[in-house]
Design a protein that fits this description.
By secondary structure, this protein is mainly beta. It has one helix at residues 13-26, and strands at residues 5-8, 56-61, 68-73, 80-81, 89-96, 102-109, 119-127, 134-141, 149-153, 156-160, 166-170, 176-178, 189-190, 196-198, 205-208, 213-218, 223-227, 233-237, 244-248, 253-258, 271-277, 283-289, 301-306, 319-320, 328-334. A hairpin with a 4-residue loop joins strand 15 (205-208) and strand 16 (213-218). 4% of the residues lie in helices and 39% in strands.
Amino acid sequence: MPSGHSATIKPGILGLMLLVASAFACGPAVELPPIPREGTPAGGSPVGPGLPAGGLAVWESNRDGSWGIWVQSFDERGPRRLSPLEAGRDHCCAHISPGGRQVAYLSRPTLGDYQERPIDGELRLLLRDGSGERVLGPARGQVWANRSAVWRSEGELILIGADGLTYLHDLPTGRRRALTRVAEPLGWLVDPTLRHATQALPSFSPYDARSRAITSLFGFRGCESYFSADGRWGYWVERGGGPIRRMRLGDRLVSDWIGRDDPRLPKGRRYVYFPMLSRDGGWLAYGASGGGHSHSKANYEIFVVPVDRETLDLTGPPLRLTDHPKVDRYPDLWVPADARP
């Protein structure tokens, strides 16, 4: 597997150098000719067979002219916009709470895609029906990754502050406790078990909650890194269009999760991005295009596939959730605890 080296975390120059190197994996690329769409029809109760009843998916889409958060309940027909229309601002980085009742997302100024710097905004919270929206405070999204927060519990969010520190935000009181001591422009997210940290650049570095220190480990190319809710796995996209890779954090064993042009995926929909594991660990949501790379123009659609909770191996065919000519990207998925793939 790729090897890294240990070092004391240093903000600024090192992170920016790594960011530039990562651009070759996740930055803009030449748009490929479109491939005729072909895929597995969506499943779920009214949505169709295959998806777990009671499940919920959220994602980013520009289908109504601005980037917003869209939602699909597997018990209802058709998606709808969840976040409000807001002139001059984009909505991104949506994540569903552990109980499936709340959605956190980032509202930030409209500046275009592939910003090679952090974009500050405000973290917001609303209920799954779109009501009860409130502002939680300033927050930062990771470059190219559209990751801004990690749910630790129904009342706690780990987030990147606009000052470059990582915080634990207590929802009932609104208080924030700093989890890091050193500000980092690229931002660190910490997993729910408070044992590992990562930037958009995949490192899954050891985190010590007592000292609030991160021993940074670098050496993996790619972007869009995130954690399983139980802290056992890290995953990311290694290159444009795949593969999606996974790391078993206990021994740092790395393997392909979904290969590049993986034959298990529908033909014409094998250019993959935006992986997100459901909190229960039994489902993977991701985006796939017919070969186009641009995250703002290519026709990405959202797919859901069942996985083994122990190994994360795929256990069934991908199920198509969206079908729209605009972009659908960066999904998150929640299913009831008793739903089994």
